[in-house]
Amino acid sequence: EPISYRNNTDDWYSRYPQCLGHKQSPIAIFRHKSIDIIVPPIFFGLYDIPMAEPIILHNSGHTVQFQIPKTVLDEKPFITGGILEGTFIVEQAHFHWGSATRKGSEHMLNGHRYDLEMHIVHHNSKFADVNTARHFENGVAVIALLFKIVKINDIGYTGLDLIYKNLKSIQFHNTTIKAEEIISLGSLLGNIDRNDFYTYHGSLTTPPCSETVTWIIFANILPISYSDIKKFWNIRDTTDNQYVNIRDLQSSLFRKVYHFGHLKLQTSGWNFD
């Protein structure tokens, strides 16, 4: 049965008890509350190598998603580094959005809710897929990108533009469209600074809310045009209604949120500037 955001997401726990856990996502992230860390940067393996076949976009009735195929080198893209323990192989990507009257990002950044959030979901290479990996500690890693509506029309991100232009074809529940061009996974990241991100331990933001996810949330916000975001707002669910698919913010409790990126290192005790 499809996930429902209709009433609110607080009643998920009646069927999925983990949704009431202490390491739930999404959360509100603040720069001043995050802890700067010096760890290896994230290595985006094969992210910029073209995929071997086009992506197939699907309207599941609660999101727009697509599996990530292998690259032309016959392996899937992967990530490692940061606070990740191990290597994480990409599986799929999907989106969360709002409406003309409601912001659409799941995570909140520095007091702002943004207009769209994209998740790129990876499983620990020890496991076959996300569904298996989510049962184990350090099983899953999700990269999140936040988007903000801007007035420009053609922003020119090849991978993202390919998705936007195919959304009309999957407006209705359970429809599928094969994109006609080949892209790389990295092209979905636009021109984002890959070395500036927040990271914390949390959960899937949809049932069963498994608490085995390392989140990587880019600090930079990507622009999206109003005409493109409207295509998400027009997507229909199983009952042919437009839908909003954002989970309510969860309490961060005592969790630490780490920040990786441009540290202003003090090189000596004296400051001459």
UniProtKB/TrEMBL annotation:
Its EC number is 4.2.1.1. Residues 1-261 form the Alpha-carbonic anhydrase domain. SUPFAM superfamilies: Carbonic anhydrase. The lineage of its organism: Eukaryota, Metazoa, Ecdysozoa, Arthropoda, Hexapoda. PROSITE patterns: ALPHA_CA_1, ALPHA_CA_2. Reversible hydration of carbon dioxide. This is Carbonic anhydrase. It catalyses: hydrogencarbonate + H(+) = CO2 + H2O. Its cofactor is Zn(2+). It is an enzyme of class 4 (lyase). It holds the Pfam family Carb_anhydrase. Keywords: Lyase, Metal-binding, Zinc. Belongs to the alpha-carbonic anhydrase family. One of its GO terms (cellular component) is cytoplasm. GO terms for molecular function: carbonate dehydratase activity; zinc ion binding. PANTHER family: CARBONIC ANHYDRASE. Coiled coil: none annotated.
